[in-house]
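User: Here's a protein and a ligand (succinic acid). What would the complex look like?
Assistant: Let me lay out the input and then the predicted complex.
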Amino acid sequence: MTQDIHNAPTVVRATSLGRSIQVEPLTCTIGAELGNVNLGVAAQDDSLLAEIRALLLKHRVLFFREQDITRAQHVAFARHFGNLEDHPVAGSHPDHPGLVQIYKTPDSPLERNENSWHTDATWREKPPMGCVLRCVECPPVGGDTMWVNMVEAYKQLPEDIKTKIAPLRARHSIEWSFGAPMPIEKRHALKAEYPDAEHPVVRTHPETGEKILFVNSSFSTHFTNFNVPSNVRFGQDKSPASSQLLNYLTSQANIPEFQVRFRWKKNSVAFWDNRSTQHYAVMDYPPSHRKMERAGIMGDLPY
Ligand code: SIN
């Protein structure tokens, strides 16, 4: 296993203000908690923003505690990394477009479960580059979120699997996920507005050049170019061989050695690289409430 994180400095200087960001890696493969940073201040400091971006690329998900910031500051911080986008099913805050409300309360209009491994919005042609999620209200216990490092998941695949999946592409569908509980007309309208996307099964990180295993069990439905003579001897091979390989690949997200688990408190923030990770929000807390607000940052076309 690659463990670059062990070589990481635990303290990084923010040169412009002489302020130091404290960096505490949470596992050997993914996640670091950053101390001595206020995201409201960081949003106005280019040198701090550059350090946070570098740390994001290194640790893939960054955690910040005690961020008693306004919604405007939350949005302003995330906007430094790109434009924000709303979600077609989850609503955004009425005064803050791009700040998606993930509220789980008894009166929540949303029948929306995050307890499934996913990279956000891979059903988009250009899925988000990252997301900044702040906890507004959390249950007394439970409601943790887990992230998994999909660069490490790719690295540790057997070589013959890497060779087999190199040319493959996969379909990603909002209809299949968020559309499923909708009445048929509404589901079809959703699909018409957000047609399925197709992405490489192994994408390249646009900033680091790393290879990433880029299929997930929430949105990836099938390989689009599997059924060729080298993979299919008889018709019987088509469906089982293809779906078993896809299941094997998506199941890599379940491996604990690639994961980190974060316990939320009010005003905790997570900033993740959505290109190289998946996440899973643990739904163990009902009937307690949980309210999260997420700024999703637009991304690039995966290649
Ligand atoms: C998400 O799936 O983007 C939100 C995760 C969470 O609510 O913890």
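Summary: Confidence is low (pLDDT under 50) at residues 5-17.
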